[in-house]
Design goal:
3 helices, 0% strand, mainly alpha, rod-shaped, 66% helix
């Protein structure tokens, strides 16, 4: 009879989620500042300034 393999225990995904949430929150704060400073700018302009895609700006605006 062969021994059973020892299962690999993975780190909880919550660390990754917290890092993602943290970076999203950071981007939301930057976007909030940009919107205050440049209220008439287009999403593409915000995206260029933050170094993200226009679609990401759309996602972040939902979190504002």
């Amino acid at each position: 009879m062969s021994p059973l393999p020892v299962p690999v225990i993975k780190e909880p995904a919550c660390k990754e989620n917290n890092a993602h949430r943290s970076s999203s929150q950071h981007l939301v704060e930057k976007l909030r500042r940009l919107v205050r400073e440049h209220p008439n700018a287009k999403q593409g302009e915000y995206a260029e300034r933050l170094g993200v895609s226009q679609g990401r700006i759309s996602q972040l605006k939902k979190l504002l």
